[in-house]
Amino acid sequence: MTHAEDAYALFEKAIGTSDGTGDWLLVDQARINAFADVTEDHQFIHVDPEKAAELSPYKVTIAHGFLTLSLLVPLTSSIPQPLERAVGAVMGVNYGFEKIRFIAPVKVDSRIRAESSVSAVELKDPNTLQVTRTVTVEIEGETKPALVAEWVTRAIYS
């Protein structure tokens, strides 16, 4: 058996169970502004606290939805993963998303964290796995999540 085939069996057993929850991450105005600069999206609801207080239903600035999505890497990297799934892994790459829903806004100075569970796994070839995870980004103190995404990655094994 290859390392990928061994990992496939482990991922298959984990389908539907949570891998856990990661660490909290602060989304402050400096992070929002930096993202606005990189993406050239300077809509007032993100970068103008005074105008947001006056015109926005949230009364504060909010993070771009794509900023929250882009934070999936650091948010999920703090979720402990079983080491046996990584035996022989050479690299992992983003493959895309099956579905992304932005449920609730991330208000400035909120803390967010991710919860992840394996929802599907495919053995693409003897050395490659395609893993789909359902990732939910929680907002501290809020009942609704910021986003829920079906994130597809590929893991390449030696």
Give me a quick take on this structure:
With 158 residues, the chain is an alpha+beta fold. The chain has helices spanning 3-14, 29-39, 44-47, 49-55, 65-70, 72-77; strands at 18-21, 25-27, 89-102, 110-125, 128-139, 147-157. Strands 1, 2, 3, 4, 5 and 6 form a 6-stranded antiparallel β-sheet that branches.
Description:
The chain has 158 residues and is an alpha+beta fold. It has helices spanning 3-14, 29-39, 44-47, 49-55, 65-70, 72-77, and strands spanning 18-21, 25-27, 89-102, 110-125, 128-139, 147-157. The protein has one domain (3-25, 64-157): Thiol Ester Dehydrase, Chain A (Roll). Strands 1, 2, 3, 4, 5 and 6 form a six-stranded antiparallel sheet that branches. The chain is elongated, with a radius of gyration of 18 Å.
Can you tell me the CATH topology?
Thiol Ester Dehydrase, Chain A
The CATH class name reads Alpha Beta
Strand count, sense and barrel status of the largest sheet are: 6 strands, antiparallel
By helix and strand content, what is the structural category?
A: alpha+beta
Q: Rough shape?
A: elongated
Mean pLDDT: 97
What Rg, in angstroms, do the CA atoms define?
A: 18 Å
User: What is the element string, with H for helices and E for strands?
Assistant: HEEHHHHHEEEE
Show unreliable segments.
none
Strand content: 35-45%
Provide the CATH architecture.
Roll
- What is the straight-line distance between the termini? 12 Å
> How many discrete domains?
1
The CATH superfamily is identified as: Hotdog Thioesterase
> What's the total count of β strands?
6
Helix tally equals 6
Estimate the helix proportion, in percent: 25-40%
